[in-house]
Amino acid sequence: MYHHVKKLMFTVRVDEPDPHFGNMLLEQFGGANGELAAAMQYSIQGLNCEDPERKDLLMDIGTEELSHLEIVGTLARLHLAPTKFDREAAEADPLIAIAGGGGVNLFNSQGNPWTADYLKITGELDVDLRSNIAAEARAKIVYERLINFCDDAGTKDALQFLMTREITHMKAFAAALESMSKPAFSIGRIAPTPGLVNQFFNDSTGSGDHGEIDTRGPWNEGGDWEFMKSPAIQTDADADTKASMESSPPEAAEGVQELLVDELRDILHAEKQLTKALPQMAEAARFTQLRELFEQHLIETENQIERINECFSLLGETARAKPCKGMMGLVEEGQEVMDKGEKKPDAAADLALIGAAQRVEHYEISGYTSARNLASQLRHSAISALLSASLAEEENADQLLNQVARSLMSVARMPAALERTAMEEK
């Protein structure tokens, strides 16, 4: 929930109002790089985030940006105040003076209304964090320019504070991105084409009218880089290079479709086993949220079986399951966990159950990933899409189990009486 405290995050003082500068300030109120855009971007990313630690980061900074919006709005209002009664001042911005009565509104410095199109939200945490770092960098530059155009000491103090916080946020987002230990260019899940990913095309060639020349640097030489002619001027002698840029041949490697069918039959048997195991796990769960999670995942598993059957139909194959020994072993382990859990405290029993469930999820994630990659290699886009949908559900289930486990870990550290109370509340 939000709670407004009637105190600015930084005390604002304007000694000499300047309506023209007040108009400039609106860029940071309702502009593309302004505080409202930042507050909405980080808060909505936070609402979508399945990672509890980084969700907290996004919500903390998103909420602070709302406080910054209040500072900028107060600054702009004080600078625009003369437009309420002074004709010459009103001419600095008729839209504000006439339509807005001399107050601020969600417009930028050009009078363009704020829009959600300003927001950069992809749902991929590492990609969103990179967008946020760039957003803070742009905002820092806007504040720097505002400071350079400002003569009022009190206003400059407030802008210096706001500009500094942009760097603070950049540092926090960069640290969060680094803590994910994800390679810098590992974006999404589909790997880039080997070889092609390291080719730098020299697409701007020759000498320009103003002396521009072709240059070399760490962006196109050294390391893994391969400096290439522009595709537009390649000759027949460059046939090997051209071939590397074309689509892969339609003929799949021998045996790939058989591998896909075999993988699907393995997954089908695994999922059918889970439709029997999940109700038992739900019944064994003592934490309400965990029980509901198992019940929801049972519905997802039944839908996943339907998708696998649809994949077989698209391949023209019989939807026949193959005994999945891996899942058999995991289900057997899960039964042992449930049997032993009968003698354990509630939180400990459920944590053990979550461990068994996550081993199952990781097994399924690997199976769906392999099957989807095979389908992509065969250019079966419809099958790839079906498998991707199931893979996303498995990954989400794993994240939800993580969240429940974190809650239970805090409960497990409580004295027995308090643990019972906490479990009842949850």
UniProtKB/TrEMBL annotation:
Coiled-coil segments: none
Keywords in alphabetical order: Calcium, Manganese, Metal-binding
Record's keyword annotation contains Cell inner membrane: no
Any GO molecular function: metal ion binding
Binding site for Ca(2+): 56, 60
Needed cofactors: Mn(2+); Ca(2+)
Chain positions recorded as Mn(2+) binding sites: 35, 65, 68, 136, 169
Keyword Calcium among UniProt keywords: yes
InterPro entries: DUF892_YciF-like, Ferritin-like, Ferritin-like_SF, Mn_catalase, Mn_catalase_dom, YciF
Cofactor: record remark: Binds 2 manganese ions per subunit. Binds 1 Ca(2+) ion per subunit.
Family: Belongs to the manganese catalase family.
Name of this chain's protein: Non-heme manganese-containing catalase
UniProt organism field: Nitrobacter vulgaris
